[in-house]
Amino acid sequence: MIENSDLIALFTTLKMASITTIILMIIGTPLAWYLAKMKSRFKIIIEAVVALPIVLPPTVLGFYLLIAFSPEHLPGKLWQDITGQQLAFSFSAIVIGSVFYSLPFVVQPIQKAFEQLGDDILEAGAVLGANAFDRFFTIVLPITKASFITAASLGFAHTVGEFGIVLMIGGNISGETKVLSIALFEHVEAFNYAKAHMLAISLLIGSFIILALVYLLNYSPQKIAKMSVKSSNKNRDINKA
Amino acid sequence: MNELSFTFNTLFDGFELSVNQTIPTQGITGVFGHSGSGKSTLLRCIAGLEKRTLGEVTLNGTNLYNSRSRYFIKPEKRQIGLVFQDARLFPHLNVIENIEYGRNRSKHKTLFTDDVIKLTQLEALKYKSVTLLSGGEKQRVAIARALLAEPKLLLLDEPLSALDNTSKQFMLTMLLNIQQQLKLPMLYVSHSMAELQQISDNLLVMNKGQVTHFGNVHNIIHTLNNCQSITQQTSLSLPIHENLPKYGLSSLTLAPNTYIYFPLLTSSTKSETAYNNIRCFIAASDISISRHEALESSIVNHFQAEITHIQPQDNTVLITLNCHEHTFYSSISLWSAERLSLHVNDLIYIQFKASAVHSLADIGML
User: Fold this and answer.
1) H or E stretch including A233?
2) Which CATH superfamily does the domain covering B3-231 fall into?
3) Which band of pLDDT confidence, cut at 50, 70 and 90, is reported for residue A238?
4) Which of A128, A225, A229 sits opposite B101 (nearest CB)?
5) Separation in Å, CA of A127 to nearest CA in chain B
6) pLDDT, tens digit, for every residue of B280-329?
7) Predicted confidence band at A231 (pLDDT cuts at 50, 70, 90)?
8) What is the pLDDT of residue B270?
9) Which of A131, A138, A143 sits opposite B91 (nearest CB)?
10) Fewer beta carbons below 10 Å: N end or C end of chain B?
11) ipTM, 2 decimals?
């Protein structure tokens, strides 16, 4: 049913989305912390830049990245000088593009969680002898872990679903830059609707499962415990009555 | 060099903190002031939580902060504990995990978790989620957590302000027990003079970001009587003489063979008696003055005293008296003062009911 080229596209997609998500978590966490704690007016500008991919057509971002990645411009030239390979139309290019494209989906949930957490509880950690690193891993991370799961899932799912930006800066090279959404587009262009349907339904189900898992994990055990306490109190009241 | 020295001259939002004080790091030092006087800000500066300050902090001879030389020891390195007004427990950890958070980061680990749990009476709550605790229980966990971090100085920022009077009695008795057993110096902030009268050895008074008074708690309370900034009162610390359960009374020794009677000590305040004198206060308006001793009166407390000072205040008069080497304050109407024709050095009789003598059981009355 599924062609070999589609399986390669699936593998490329998962590889791209996984690497992108890891990079996003590494750079998104300190960026979210900085934005949550920053009191400067420049915060608004940085927040707007981070949020741009939400409203910008992917082709616009793809177009400017394509220009930047070309060997005639500094980023592309630097890349070529260091790696000896062209950046545009490479796997690395679609990963970098995906990082920009999915950045707000990772930064915003984490930033919101950091803002809600506030400084009070961190001050409590500090006067108990915990340094900044210790406080992050023993207080911040456990309390905000749901937002990290949300951020990683949204970042991953959004990267899997991208199309325009990958097409602009990656082209359609099988095993390198050809991802599922592009393979789907190809099948539709060739009027091969059965294969297109197979890929479309796979993406649909995959995305649904990821989102369902996010909501399930955000539905924390504490909330479930509170619900069970409420229901047991209700039962007790009924029994008393 | 068992002392804490601090100097701050910093403009915060709405007020200027301008203090320069040295206090001994032994016993409990109360910090009194009305809302906005800078008490909590002072504690935050000492703990190192306010970074944009101008000044200096030295604890037991070790410099912790000096803005001129840009020397700043981070809060986690200062070994100064702070119990916040709102407990600030970690919601993802249960009671025992919260408590051990402090111990796991302590350098010394000389205190045992079980001992502190016993001191703070948290045995039954060890594995409970902190989100399900009452206000008083949360503060007990916060205190246990701070104790196990083994600080050199413990700061308490109005830890009882959200509790009811019964919980306050229990917590104050517990804090006194902790102080007695661990010999941990504490700085206890409150806007309740009743709490501070019960718990403090020394009292520091703040007003508009400045220290206005510092000294022995009874002396400072008596000094404040003349400023009319608190309920005028006689503050005493006296050894217990006997309990008279049949009459619902206890007595304190004012002088040899001279006793003050007051309501019988309840079980919740008894633990204090094992270590200390009983702290009590009598509102100046509850002490009346007579030229003759009222021997045939229902009022059980009547003593001869000498007038040392008379201070007219609007339509009342605050009279300072010496009674068996203790200072008493009586507030009577100007009309009564004129009628009795009172003068300094006059020997008169003071009298007050047993129920006018307030101890820990009446916390929250002032």
Assistant:
1) helix A221-240
2) P-loop containing nucleotide triphosphate hydrolases (3.40.50.300)
3) very low
4) A128
5) 5
6) 999 999 999 999 988 889 999 999 999 999 999 889 999 999 999 999 99
7) very low
8) 54
9) A143
10) N
11) 0.86
The alpha carbon of residue A55 and the mean position of all alpha carbons in its chain are separated, in whole angstroms, by 16
Give the pLDDT confidence score for residue B52 in this predicted structure. 84
User: Taking CA A119 as the corner, what is the angle to CA A33 and CA B41, rounded to the nearest 5 degrees?
Assistant: 140
Instruction: Note whether B159 contacts A: Cβ–Cβ < 8 A.
Output: no
The strand pairing partners of B319, in sequence order, are B310, B330
Asked if residue B149 lies in contact with residue B80, where contact means CB atoms within 8 angstroms, the answer is no
Cβ-Cβ pairs closer than 8 A, A with B, add up to: 65
d(CA B366, CA B232): 10
State the nearest Cα–Cα gap between A47 and chain B, in angstroms: 27
- Partner-chain contact A126 B49, CB within 8 Å: yes
Q: What are phi and psi of A230, to 5 degrees?
A: -60, -45
Q: Give pLDDT tens digits for B85-103.
A: 999 999 999 999 999 998 9
pTM for the model stands at 0.84
Q: Does domain A4-240 have CATH number 1.10.3720.10?
A: yes
The CA-CA-CA angle for residues B281, B287, B290, to 5°, reads 150
Please tell me if residue A128 touches chain B, with a CB cutoff of 8 Å. Answer: yes
Query: Does residue A115 sit at the B interface (CB-CB below 8 Å)?
Result: no
Q: Which CATH number fits domain B235-362: 3.40.50.1220, 2.40.50.100, 2.60.40.420, 3.40.50.10800?
A: 2.40.50.100
Q: Are B52 and B210 in contact (CB under 8 A)?
A: no
Contacts of A131 in chain B (CB under 8 A): 74, 76
Tokens 């000088």 appear where? A81
* Strands B80-83 and B153-157, sheet pairing: parallel
C-beta atoms of B101 and A126 within 8 A: no
The DSSP element (H or E) to which A134 belongs, if any, is helix A132-135
Alpha carbon distance B6, B31 (integer Å): 14
Could A131 and B74 be called an inter-chain contact, meaning their C-beta atoms sit closer than 8 Å? yes
